[in-house]
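Saturday, quiet lab. Running sequence design on the structure tokens for the scaffold JK sent over.
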């Protein structure tokens, strides 16, 4: 059984504004809610949205006694066998953008935060970077070395709160699909910026707090006379603790000394609506930047 402590959030993790007057969106269960969550038994936490920068977060924030309760699941339970095969095209779009932003030179140093199986590290090595990484999940760390051939000296076992690297050691740092899982994103980014060289680039992919589809589901819950929302999943897979707006990073940039060098919104998949509506919804989300994923490239001053 998973055990948690619960931390009250007093200030927005990104813009630092007091949470006292932040919008309360509803409650989120510690399991998949389905279409009728009020008939389910479980633990729920409040979900709020910052009125200053748009960040969506759980309050209180559930913190597991052991991180492996969340991320210690063997990767074979997540992925099929073909996922353990690396292809050189993997992560290529991000690498191409990073190279342009960096004015790339062969041998630049890269760090993968939350490296998983190490496939992005392999791609960065293939594109001329010297890649390092760290991974908090013991099974993923072990498979990266034993199945993917990552060298043990390239990959550390640990969470961002625990690992250390020299100051200004890297030209490029990627969080990939990691930033929404960290408990204190601003502090994590501050630590990563310390590891980054001046003019270096940090790449972050996160769920967008502007995503259109949860608004439909939340309206459905409201019409069913419940106060549940579909945002986040802090106590069950995939353990999302935050959803971010571009303003979240723009506000933090003024505090931490970086600039948003590039950003992109991606529509991604659509769920729970008839397929005949997908083309219309995708076109609308693309035109209004209300897709599922926000990607930012941050440049250290």
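Result came back. Writing it out in full:
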């Amino acid at each position: 059984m998973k055990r948690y402590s619960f931390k009250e959030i007093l200030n927005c993790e990104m813009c630092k504004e007091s949470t006292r007057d932040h919008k309360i969106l509803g409650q989120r269960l510690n399991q998949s809610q389905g279409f009728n969550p009020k008939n389910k038994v479980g633990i729920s936490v409040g979900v709020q949205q910052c009125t200053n920068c748009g960040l969506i977060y759980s309050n209180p924030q559930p913190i597991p006694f052991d991180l492996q309760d969340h991320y210690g699941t063997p990767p074979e339970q997540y992925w099929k066998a073909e996922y353990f095969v690396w292809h050189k095209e993997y992560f290529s779009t991000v690498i191409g953008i990073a190279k342009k932003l960096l004015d790339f030179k062969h041998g630049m140093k890269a760090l993968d935060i939350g490296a998983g199986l190490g496939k992005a590290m392999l791609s960065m090595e293939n594109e001329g970077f010297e890649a390092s990484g760290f991974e908090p999940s013991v099974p993923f760390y072990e498979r990266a070395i034993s199945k993917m051939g990552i060298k043990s000296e390239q990959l550390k076992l640990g969470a961002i709160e625990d690992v250390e690297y020299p100051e200004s050691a890297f030209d490029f740092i990627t969080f990939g699909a990691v930033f929404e899982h960290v408990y204190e994103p601003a502090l994590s980014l501050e630590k990563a910026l310390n590891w980054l060289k001046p003019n270096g680039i940090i790449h972050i992919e996160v769920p967008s707090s502007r995503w259109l589809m949860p608004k439909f589901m939340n309206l459905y819950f409201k019409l069913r006379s419940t106060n549940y929302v579909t945002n986040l999943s802090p106590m069950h897979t995939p353990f999302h603790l935050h959803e971010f707006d571009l303003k979240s990073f723009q506000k933090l940039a003024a505090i931490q000394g970086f600039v948003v060098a590039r950003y992109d919104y991606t529509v991604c998949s659509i769920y729970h609506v008839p397929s005949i509506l997908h083309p219309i919804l995708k076109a609308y989300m693309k035109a209004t930047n209300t897709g599922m994923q926000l990607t930012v490239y941050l440049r250290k001053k």
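Notes for JK: The chain has two domains: 4-68+209-243, 71-208+270-300. The domain at 71-208+270-300 is CATH 3.40.50.150 (Rossmann fold). Ask whether to fix the surface positions before the next round.
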